[in-house]
Structure formats: C-alpha cells, structure tokens
Amino acid sequence: xxxxxxxxxxxxxxxxxxxxxxxxxxxxxxxxxxxxxxxxxxxxxxxxxxxxxxxxxxxxxxxxxxxxxxxxxxxxxxxxxxxxxxxxxxxxxxxxxxxxxxxxxxxxxxxxxxxxxxxxxxxxxxxxxxxxxxxxxxxxxxxxxxxxxxxxxxxxxxxxxxxxxxxxxxxxxxxxxxxxxxxxxxxxxxxxxxxxxxxxxxxxxxxxxxxxxxxxxxxxxxxxxxxxxxxxxxxxxxxxxxxxxxxxxxxxxxxxxxxxxxxxxxxxxxxxxxxxxxxxxxxxxxxxxxxxxxxxxxxxxxxxxxxxxxxxxxxxxxxxxxxxxxxxxxxx
Length: 332
Description:
The protein has helices at residues 69-73, 79-88, 110-125, 132-147, 157-161, 183-189, 201-213, 217-239, 242-259, 266-277, 303-312; strands at residues 3-14, 31-47, 53-57, 63-66, 94-100, 164-168, 175-179, 190-194, 282-285, 293-297, 316-318, 328-331.
C-alpha cells in the first residue's frame, strides 16, 4: 500500500512577518492575506524495503537512510521528515518519497507545505489522531526547533485549507477568514516571477522581529502599516476590486522594504526595474524577501512584454492557479 499526500504552496499578498509572536500582539491591525496556489508539495509513504528508514527526493533520487527516526532527524535534508516520523511513531520502518513543484527557496512557503504534506500523510497512517490546527502547530514547532528562532503560521494555513484567506492574529487562538476570489481574473492580473536568487526567510524575519522588539521607529511604523494594508486588501478582495488589490500589494512591498535592509537585494531590484519599464504597475516580493519569487501587477495587454523583460533580467515566469483545496490524501 502507498499513501500519497499533497498540499499547495502560497502567495502572500500583505501582512507577512506579522504572524510571528509577539509582533501581532503589539500592533493595532494584525492580519495577513494570502492564497494557496497549485505548485504542490507531495509525499508518498510506503513500507521500507529493508527495515531501514528512508527519505528520498523523487526527481534527483537522492536518498537519506538511517536505522532510526531520531538518527534521520539529524541528517541534512531529512530533518523535518525525521522529526515528524519520530513524533507520529509508525509501527514499522517507512520509505518517504518527497517532491516540490515550487522552485527551491522561492518564498512560496514550500518547506512548510512539505511539512504539512508529510504530517498529513503520517497522521492518516497512524489513525488521524490530530486535527488540522494541531498539524499546523506541530509543523510550526518543528521549524522553530530547526531554525532556533521564532516562526509564524501564515505559511501553514494555505497548505491545509486552500483558497484565499485573511488570517486574523488574535490572543488565545487565530481566525482564518476564507475570502472570495475570481481565480481566472486574478491569474490574468498578477504574474508570478522567480528571481533564481534564494530567499532568506528565517534570518530576514528574525531581523525584522528584533528591530520591532527594540522599538526601532522605522521598522515599527512599517510593520503597523503592513497590518493596515492587509486589512484593506482583504476588503478589496471581498469587493472584487483587483485594481485596488494591485495598489495595496505595492504599498505592502514599500512597507516591507522599510522593515529591514535584507528584505530586498540587487537581483530583485534589477528584475523589478525591468518589469516596471515593461509596464508593471506594482510589485511585491513573496515571503520574507531577499530573493525568491515576486508577484507583479500587469495591465491588460502587457503580459508578453513583462514576461520577456523578466526573463531578460535573469528571472523566469511561473505558471500558477489558485488552489481551491488544501491537504489531500490518497491511498493506492
């Protein structure tokens, strides 16, 4: 028997980094708006062929092997899988085969999505003992162990639930508000470009949090503005006003650039400048920044010229669609 699981990645539209404790407790509007996209992470779980524990990447065939889940958790490339295997404690050794359709270090939350895929599969294999929100907390906590710094939860909700959403960061428990979205209209209006420059999520977010906690006035003002922008962008999506969404995405990017120097990079700025010259009206780097992907607001008729400009500047264009569903499990 083979158990398969897959989960979408995400594009964050506004309010990134606000999901980190204690930032959301210290600003007036604490919201993040994002949407799940169909660049999936996937895992196949099957019995081990030799009583060893294995984690294999599907395309490269690179396989990491250990005689215990604890040992697997200490091996580069298998840290998350090994910790999740240790937590769920399946009765017999397994072979996990993983794959991500998103480029590496693209700022699309692929590592969190893969964690959700693995956790979802192992949860199903061991009797569905945990609910969706518990899976989110589990994967987030494991990421904290690995990074040894605070992490947020905005990357984990789209893989679990799918669709567009506003995440309201509250005391005691957070609230996910599903949002309506015209997926075809959104895809036509917003282009997803990849810079081929790795992003720096943990380090960049930690720099922002430290500056915020130390009451750096520029960072504090930028974080508060990002929260207000996310709340306004939520309203624009509900109204179906994609022109307003474009403006607000650009405003959030300006706020993020003021949070910490590492949010941008020369490679990103080169692509942004080329895209602007080709007709883009607003842009925002996905995730923590420093590299990875960016979303570009493209006026009608400008997509071919913008796409060509992105490629000429050293980037590439990624096809995507909004993923209406989150974590899925299949048995073969």
